[in-house]
């Protein structure tokens, strides 16, 4: 089992006391599997993704990724997990604006000590970025920026890819193309994918769908 | 991983070279101004130390003649025979080419080991024939070697224009056989010695340090310089703080991304610290080099200032000291830490999932409450500071509180003024302009604070200097009312002069005095031949009745302001001139430029109290100065150098005075320039952030050109509003300098005058600086391609 989530809970402070966002979520993902997380706004999809990615700390419950208990790790341990095991793709791309496309693609792989120039070039070619490698993110369209983010996540050869509305900022046609490329590459690398999306069509292209409603899996 | 992280962080600077330049230049300028001033101070202090090492001044008690400048050798021998451990010194001036050299002759076997000076050690250990050597400051070796057969050895430890040698050599060089000028008293003396007043009644004992009022004065000068250095440094640090804050703000998203990609917060902090360290070292090295250049440029004026004001000699060539380099780098690092601390703290507490890019303005807005409270507390402390504690340091602490408090209050005051304007604005364009200007305040606040400090310092110091100049000019007119000042060779020639000029002058005013102690203070008692000219010219700070009549009758005395303030003596109080002889004080007179206390009594009383003193110097009031000069030269054989006319003396005094403040004026200009630079850099750095704010206005029908013009107008308006705050702040600064700092440092309280014309010029210059600083960013904005403005509205490309 690559990912195991047990009885996960999380609240955020509100004006009238803590507001529960996740209320005892249980979830398991096999290596190489793909999973879509759906739900209304505020249902806790992104929070679950952030907790799995070690970007936030749970109030209760347990998360284990590839044998490591995420919920027991300190800041440095969670950073190491993200660096070496997880690839994250955000809706807002989150590229480093001062680095070129090539440097952005190679960045996480270099942090993880797994940089492979050939692999980076292959990803760039597969995503149609070969002509853009020397450009800076601000010189790219939104679709191109998201492709760079996908290449960056996959270049480090993560076991688990987390994607938070990866096409949410793209028009319909571009979103379809980017999605095709992402799924194809994820399948090719053998990584597991957990993706948050509102779109039933996109969710339908993944192996499994889960619905979050008021902090619980429906 | 570290390399990748560093490369990512560094890439920000590579993409934002202007921001990097601002940071490095700001830190370098701050370091330069600080280290330049420190270099000046260090150089001047090392010169005093060298002088003190050679002369032993200030470290040992000394015996000096009560009258004149010669101690008979018999007096010295009498003291030695009575058991007193004293060592003779003969010193005097020697002309060599154009140089005026101070020759100091000491008696090696008897001199106390006062200084551990190399020259002295070399002499004590050298063979007899080498003891004839003269150890001289390197600057005068050639001149000295040209006029003497004795070997002249360069010694950098010597004070400027000073040479030390054996007393027998000094006697020959100065042509004063068997003469001594002072005796140095060893600290440890045998028990049961007779009283010095019994053995040598003609000598006065000056306690260690008391002979060195100059230390106090030069210290206050250095403190002034240091305060300005610190102020300039603060202005620079405001720039650095702004640059670092902005860089951190812009990198906030990057740092969040780095963390999501697997760099731990601790490592990111470490990398940023390393980056800042590297930048601080580079900027520090640049700053130290610039500081050296600044110090080397200003040193001649500092040397002239100290010599002119206090008679302290400073070498005119700057020497490099490793400690100074290191302290320069240290202050750059400290400045970087100071400026970066807030940003570091913010990053350390920033959650990894901070939503969106929090605007700088919002972050600043949250600080406003605390900033306002701190500003009020600091200004309050400044107000109560002089009341709660005395001393120069307390005065400067109050000044610091005042300036910092006002700087912190500035953004709040400007925001209030702009909000008021916004509420009252009629036109929509004006309303938008004022609202948009308010929005810019957080980004410009540090540059505006720097401008405020620079303007306030400029107003404060120029008010002080101009008040001083006005007072000093009036003082010179009061004091230098005689038409000729004459210095005779001896008292016999002095007596002859009085006979010769009696019928050719309106008044002959002998200048005669004794050094003594009055009310526990070192002081001079002058015997004045009261003439109408005194009553016509002297002005009193405080007086009691007809001052001059009472002084002429020997019934009262006049004292100077220094003595009045230090000993708290005022008209009506009594001043004791000698045991059993106390006179009431009839008047207190301002006495600018003189470090010690003075008492003026009538000549008849002076002669009764000090019958051995006869005048050698005179002021002559005449209708025909040129004719009288010719008479003195022909009939008395006086040289031209012995006769000084009033105009030349005034011109010399004013020249000394003008040079005195050259250094502070230069620092003022530099500080204002640095503030202008801060505005320029802030506007340039903010220019990129302005596009999303201005794009809607452009889309709604304003041209790029008019937007550019409004940017210039905005800088001018902000500078003008800052000037409104700077004016009262600068005047408060001047008031504190004149009434607190000056009294503490010099013992005088100067009247404060206002100079509206000067302030208008300064205001004009400041607004002009802001206008010039805004031109380039505004031009860039006016030329922003429409495609860039359109990007603001495009979510997808």
UniProtKB/TrEMBL annotation, chain A:
Q: Enumerate the Pfam families for this protein.
A: ABC_tran
A single GO CC term for this protein reads: membrane protein complex
Q: Which UniProt keywords apply?
A: ATP-binding, Cell inner membrane, Cell membrane, Membrane, Nucleotide-binding, Transport
Q: Which GO terms describe its molecular function?
A: ATP binding; ATP hydrolysis activity; transmembrane transporter activity
Q: Which residues form the ABC transporter domain?
A: 3-218
Q: Which family does it belong to?
A: Belongs to the ABC transporter superfamily. Macrolide exporter (TC 3.A.1.122) family.
Family matches, as PANTHER family: IMPORT ATP-BINDING PROTEIN, TRANSPORTER, PUTATIVE-RELATED
State the name under which the record lists this protein: ABC transporter ATP-binding protein
Protein species of origin: Salibaculum griseiflavum
From TrEMBL, chain B:
What are the protein's UniProt keywords? Cell membrane, Membrane, Transmembrane, Transmembrane helix
**CC terms in the record's Gene Ontology section:** plasma membrane
Bilayer-crossing residues are 225-248, 268-295, 324-348, 369-388, 394-420, 441-461, 669-691, 712-739, 759-778
**Where does the record place the ABC3 transporter permease C-terminal domain?**
227-352, 668-786
Q: How does it sit in the membrane?
A: Multi-pass membrane protein
As for subcellular location, the record says: Cell membrane
InterPro entries named in the record: ABC3_permease_C (IPR003838), Membrane_comp_ABC_pdt (IPR038766)
A single Pfam family it belongs to is: FtsX
The protein depicted here goes by the name ABC transporter permease
């Amino acid at each position: 089992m690559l990912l195991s989530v047990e009885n996960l809970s999380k609240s955020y402070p509100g004006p009238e006391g803590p507001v529960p966002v996740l209320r005892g979520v249980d979830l398991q993902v096999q290596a190489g599997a793909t999973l879509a997380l759906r739900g209304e706004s505020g249902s806790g999809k992104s929070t679950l993704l952030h907790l799995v990615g070690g970007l936030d700390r749970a109030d209760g419950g347990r998360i284990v990724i590839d044998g490591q208990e995420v919920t027991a790790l300190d800041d440095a341990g969670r950073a190491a997990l993200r660096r070496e095991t997880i690839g994250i793709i955000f809706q807002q791309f989150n590229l480093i604006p001062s680095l070129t496309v090539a440097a952005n693609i190679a960045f996480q792989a270099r942090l993880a000590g797994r940089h492979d120039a050939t692999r980076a070039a292959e990803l760039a070619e597969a995503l149609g970025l070969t002509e853009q490698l020397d450009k800076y993110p601000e010189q790219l369209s939104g679709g191109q920026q998201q492709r760079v983010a996908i290449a960056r996540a996959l270049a480090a050869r993560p076991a688990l890819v987390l994607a938070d509305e990866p096409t949410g900022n793209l028009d319909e046609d571009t979103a379809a193309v980017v999605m095709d490329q992402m799924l194809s590459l994820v399948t090719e690398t053998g990584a597991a994918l957990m993706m948050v999306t509102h779109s039933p069509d996109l969710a339908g292209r993944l192996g499994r769908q889960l619905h979050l409603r008021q902090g619980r899996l429906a | 991983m570290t390399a990748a992280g560093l490369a990512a962080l560094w890439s920000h600077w590579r993409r934002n070279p202007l921001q990097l330049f601002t940071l490095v230049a700001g830190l370098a300028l701050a370091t330069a101004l600080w280290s330049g001033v420190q270099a000046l101070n260090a150089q001047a202090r090392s010169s005093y130390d060298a002088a003190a090492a050679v002369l032993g001044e200030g470290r040992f008690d000394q015996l000096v003649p009560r009258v004149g400048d010669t101690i008979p050798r018999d007096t010295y021998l009498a003291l030695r025979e009575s058991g007193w451990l004293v060592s003779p010194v003969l010193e005097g001036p020697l002309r060599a080419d154009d140089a005026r050299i101070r020759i100091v002759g000491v008696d090696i076997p008897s001199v106390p080991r006062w200084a551990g000076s190399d020259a002295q050690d070399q002499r004590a250990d050298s063979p007899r024939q080498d003891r004839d050597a003269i150890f001289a400051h390197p600057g005068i070796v050639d001149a000295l070697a040209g006029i003497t057969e004795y070997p002249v050895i360069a010694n950098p430890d010597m004070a400027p224009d000073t040479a030390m040698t054996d007393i027998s050599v000094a006697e020959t060089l100065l042509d004063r056989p068997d003469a001594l000028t002072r005796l140095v008293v060893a600290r440890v003396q045998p028990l049961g010695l007779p009283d010095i007043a019994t053995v040598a009644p003609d000598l006065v004992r000056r306690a260690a340090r008391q002979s060195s009022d100059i230390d106090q004065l030069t210290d206050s000068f250095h403190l002034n310089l240091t305060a300005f250095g610190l102020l300039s440094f603060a202005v620079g640090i405001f720039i650095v703080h702004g640059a670092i804050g902005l860089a951190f703000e812009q990198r906030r998203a990057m740092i969040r991304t780095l963390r999501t990609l697997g760099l731990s917060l601790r490592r990111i902090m470490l990398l940023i610290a390393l980056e800042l360290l590297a930048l601080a070292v580079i900027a520090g090295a640049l700053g130290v080099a610039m500081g050296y250049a600044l110090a080397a440029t200003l040193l001649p004026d500092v040397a002239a200032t100290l010599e002119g004001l206090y008679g302290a000699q400073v070498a005119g060539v700057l020497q490099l000291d490793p400690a100074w380099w290191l302290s320069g780098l240290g202050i750059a690092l400290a400045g970087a830490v100071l400026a970066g601390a807030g940003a570091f703290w913010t990053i350390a507490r920033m959650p990894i999932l901070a939503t969106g890019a929090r605007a700088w303005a919002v972050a600043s807005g949250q600080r406003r409450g605390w900033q306002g409270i701190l500003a009020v507390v600091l200004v309050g402390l400044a107000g109560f500071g002089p009341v709660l504690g005395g001393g120069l340091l307390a005065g400067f602490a109050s000044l610091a509180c005042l300036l910092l408090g006002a700087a912190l209050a500035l953004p709040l005051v400007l925001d209030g003024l702009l909000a008021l304007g916004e509420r009252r604005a009629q036109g929509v364009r004006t309303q938008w302009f004022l609202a948009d200007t308010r929005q810019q305040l957080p980004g410009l606040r540090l540059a505006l604070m720097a401008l405020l400090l620079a303007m306030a310092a400029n107003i404060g110091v120029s008010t002080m200097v101009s008040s001083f100049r006005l007072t000093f000019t009036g003082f010179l007119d009061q004091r230098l009312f005689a038409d000729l000042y004459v210095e005779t060779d001896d008292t016999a020639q002095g007596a002859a002069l009085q006979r010769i000029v009696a019928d050719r002058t309106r008044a002959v005013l002998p200048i005669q005095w004794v050094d003594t102690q009055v009310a526990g203070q070192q002081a001079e008692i002058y015997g004045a031949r009261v003439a109408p000219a005194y009553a016509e010219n002297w002005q009193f700070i405080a007086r009691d009745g007809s001052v001059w009549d009472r002084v002429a009758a020997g019934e009262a005395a006049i004292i100077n302001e220094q003595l009045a303030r230090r000993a708290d003596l005022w008209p009506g109080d009594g001043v004791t001139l000698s045991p059993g002889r106390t006179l009431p004080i009839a008047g207190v007179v301002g006495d600018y430029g003189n470090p010690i206390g003075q008492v003026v009594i009538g000549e008849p009383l002076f002669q009764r109290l000090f019958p051995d003193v006869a005048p050698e110097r005179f002021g002559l009031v005449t209708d025909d100065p040129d004719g009288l000069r010719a008479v003195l030269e022909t009939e008395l054989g006086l040289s031209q150098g012995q006769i000084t006319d009033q105009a030349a003396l005034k011109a010399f005094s004013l020249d000394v005075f003008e040079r005195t403040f050259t250094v502070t004026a230069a620092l003022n200009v530099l500080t204002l320039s640095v503030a202008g630079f801060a505005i320029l850099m802030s506007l340039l750095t903010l220019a990129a952030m302005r596009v999303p704010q201005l794009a809607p206005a452009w889309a709604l029908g304003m041209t790029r050109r008019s937007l550019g013009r409004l940017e210039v107008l905005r800088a001018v308006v902000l500078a003008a509003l800052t000037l409104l705050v700077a004016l009262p702040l600068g005047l408060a600064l001047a008031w504190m300098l004149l009434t607190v700092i000056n009294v503490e440092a010099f013992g005088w309280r100067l009247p404060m005058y206002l100079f509206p014309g000067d302030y208008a010029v300064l205001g004009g210059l400041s607004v002009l600086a802001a206008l010039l600083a805004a031109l380039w960013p505004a031009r860039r904005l006016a030329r922003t391609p429409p495609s860039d403005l359109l990007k603001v509205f495009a979510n997808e490309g």
